[in-house]
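Worked Example 4.2. Consider the chain below.
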Amino acid sequence: MSATTAPAAVRPAAARPRLVRWLLRLHRPALLAWTALVVLGAALLLWLAGPLADAAAEGWRQYDACGSAPKCAYDQDAILRYKDWYGYATTALDVLPLVVAAWAGAALTGRELESGTARLAWAQSTAPARWLAVRLAVPAAAVTAGTCLLFWLHHRVWTAGRGRIDTAKSWADFGTFYANGPAVAGLAVAGLAAGVLAGLLLRRTLPALVTGTLATAGVWGLAHALMPHLWPAVTAVGGLDRGVPGTGIVVEEGLVSRSGAHLPLPRCGSSADCDTAYAHAVGQFRTYHPYAHYWPLQLVTTALLLAVAGLLVLGSFLVLRRLAGPRTGESPA
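Applying the procedure from the previous section yields the following structure tokens:
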């Protein structure tokens, strides 16, 4: 009996490498495009962290040395060049999860279901659950590896300009914050899952592309709204004339009353209204996240995004079960 059952036990395990090879062959253009994108992005970030940052820092050193002199030569082009290319690189890295979601919805599931390729694969002794697992795992590995490399290099760029380039973005700048850490990798994985789910639900290329992209933008908006509240913030208090010390990601700010209560900033339309509103205040307060909270915020935001990605993956398997029938529940082991 063992001699007759052994081949059947080996067949599912042997099918996995075939599925991976078929997936890589089918989406070879996308794999090559992703590789080229990561390589070019890494080259740009290395250029920014090295020669461009050094030239911009030297330009600012020259400018600061000018003092109040009416005419002074400094390398303005180097400063502007660094600023422009830093903006391009940051925007490209922030947009990358949306590109992943669009591709996943359009090509990874939507097009295959629209053309019937997926059902043909299911009919040829490929379990639908295994088919979907491979389509999630292989791209997720490539997307995670690429985005992790790029955000690490982007953080090197930001570190190279910190304290040396006067126009360098603050860590609290939201474009820089997301491009500077693992949150962008978490968002890319969530985008992949959102695109896959959109393709399974709509089973058409263009609608899945649009829906997956919009869903990822919605996940990003949700994470952005929740991020300042995922870690305890600190509160600083200052006088009405001195201002409040501390900078970072602001959660809340307002006035301090004589009783010590925190009041929201008044919305006064005239100086008389402002005088009335400030008459009961003795100071100002600001609840914010300082730079010391950078990594905690990055990690909890990434955890939130990965949790959303997990829910989207679960939804994809549930939708696939409805599409393919009870066979989807077969164990991929």
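The CA atoms of residues 256 and 262 lie 5 Å apart. The radius of gyration is 26 Å. Compare this with Example 4.1 before moving on.
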